[in-house]
């Protein structure tokens, strides 16, 4: 029964909270599992974290006191504390980039019932002298279909809050909460906080732009032909192509060429990046056409060697990276002498000699 007696309502809320705490935990875990599945099934890009918490009982009371009590009692409107707390169950979703937030939001809206949305991104950006963390807060509940299923029936009446942030926004929110007395600090300190907030916002924007530029490079490498003329205009004129030339091998065109020969293998970005750097340390002018030629000319020989090696050493592996290393070694043994470590290099050289293979 609602009342205007804060002490009574605190006791009632504590009793309600204690009776339902196990249910809150069960609901939180169920919602996290459901959201994980939705994110994995949707084309939203990488999400770094999905986590949840049940808000502390006394923190709930403090929030009600801070946000609602004075107005309700001023209007002489009886209340029950539990009816004004939509975030007892909280879920946080951390995306890599800010532009993923809206995409994740739409995915959730299509599967859950949306009760309210608080766009802290728009709120901060529309206020020149404000500082604080950004993010999208959504008060949600199971859809009618979900609420009718046995999996959600027990806690379908309990709403939950979802906070969606970028990785940078989440980092700023942690620091923002550590800044004490934000409403009372001098203006010069407020300006410094605004500068810091702007730097975080700039970092968020730059990470997104770097991602977009990287995608363009990958797309360009995808449409470029696998094979180039082995002699280009610069080379025919006696000029050496610079290491920055797009004809030089890089992480993007490497995947294009290697993916053509190893169609069923997934080349991971960071491994490709490191592998290409290994190549360029030995020959910084190595071209994409050189990589293509080394595989065309030597892949069959290396595969024959690999097959015999694996029969004799079934506990070992011989990945496409290893295969390419052997092809490069066979392509130019003087330049790529160190592309293989001593044991594999000596073993391969012995095999080549025994099989009468041509060594350059």
The proportion of residues forming helix, as a percent range, comes to: 55-70%
CATH topology of the largest domain: Beta Polymerase, domain 2
How many alpha or pi helices? Answer: 13
What oligomeric assembly is this protein in?
single chain
Number of domains: 2
What is the CATH top level name of the largest domain?
Answer: Alpha Beta
Beta percentage is 5-15%
Question: What's the order of the H and E elements?
Answer: HEHEHEHEHEHHHHHHHH
Shape verdict? elongated
What integer value in Å does the Rg equal?
Answer: 30 Å
Domain RelA/SpoT: 52-187
Organism: Desulfuromonas soudanensis
Pfam families: RelA_SpoT
Protein name: (P)ppGpp synthetase
Helix-strand blueprint:
Elements: H1 6-41, E1 47-54, H2 57-74, E2 89-95, H3 100-109, E3 112-119, H4 120-125, E4 136-142, H5 144-147, E5 160-166, H6 167-176, H7 187-223, H8 233-236, H9 251-261, H10 269-282, H11 288-312, H12 320-331, H13 342-354
Parallel strand pairs: 2-5
Antiparallel strand pairs: 1-2, 3-4, 4-5
Helix pairs in contact: 1-2, 6-7, 7-9, 9-11, 11-12
